[in-house]
TrEMBL record:
The chain crosses the membrane at residues 29-49, 69-91, 103-120, 132-151, 158-176, 182-199, 206-227. The keyword Chloroplast does not apply. Keywords: Membrane, Transmembrane, Transmembrane helix. This is PAP2 superfamily protein. Signal peptide: none annotated.
Length: 228
């Protein structure tokens, strides 16, 4: 009887959303377009278009090369590594729905994000805000790997929290107000986090934990880069 009641309580604790199919399709679209692997590229694009004077020492070709390098290093290579793990039968799905299957992808992504941060320190002609942001996403993957031992923390929430705090702190660095941009990022963050709940990929606690981890790691990176 106790076992049965315990099972019932556990089932009740799991939040299941039976959303209509169009809503689920929209949630999947948000999850794909704002996948955490794309966040570094989106941030680079935002800085490039909002603060072009920070790239004054580069010609157009060099800027495109840097943008492509950001995409390849932070998105393509980690995604390709996950694809290879799936094809080699080391993981059952490229969606990484099981905690233990996320360990190796976390480690691989950590390496590429660390490399991106290391390169940003040596590029004197790049905006300084990229240094703290790349360090922040590296620390976020470290936090994600640690928390993954206990709970399936939301990687989407970590990514969106990272770019949200990145935009806010960048505005502080340049002493500018980008209210429209900030509003868009806040709405996008809410949409992505809600999408993860609609698709039943995470619990509310896992999403909140991802948000707090992403925020905290970016703040640490900002402190280390500009204040330490």
């Amino acid at each position: 009887m106790d076992t049965l009641m315990s099972a019932e309580n556990e089932a009740a604790a799991v939040e299941v959303y039976n959303a209509p199919q169009p809503v689920r399709l929209l949630a999947k679209l948000f999850s794909y377009l704002l996948h955490p692997l794309f966040i570094p590229t989106y941030f680079f694009l935002w800085v490039m278009f909002r603060f072009p004077y920070e790239f004054a020492g580069m010609d157009e070709h060099t800027m495109n090369v840097r943008l492509l390098g950001t995409f390849w290093t932070t998105a393509f290579f980690p995604a390709f590594a996950v694809f290879l793990l799936w094809r080699l039968k080391f993981i059952s799905s490229i969606m990484l729905r099981i905690q233990k299957e996320r360990i190796v992808p976390y480690v691989i992504t950590m390496f590429f994000y660390w490399w991106m941060w290391y390169l940003s320190k040596n590029f004197k002609d790049q905006p300084s805000v990229l240094k703290f942001f790349y360090l922040g996403i590296f620390l976020t993957t470290v936090a994600g790997l640690i928390f993954n031992n206990f709970v399936k923390i939301s990687m989407h929430a970590m990514g969106m929290a990272g770019i949200l705090v990145g935009v806010i702190l960048t505005c502080f660095v340049y002493q500018t107000h980008q209210g429209l941009d900030l509003s868009v990022v806040i709405i996008a963050t809410g949409a992505v986090c809600t999408s993860r709940l609609i698709l039943n990929d995470h619990s509310t606690g896992e999403v909140w934990l991802g948000l707090f981890a992403g925020i905290f790691c970016q703040l640490i990176a900002y402190f280390f880069t500009f204040i330490w």
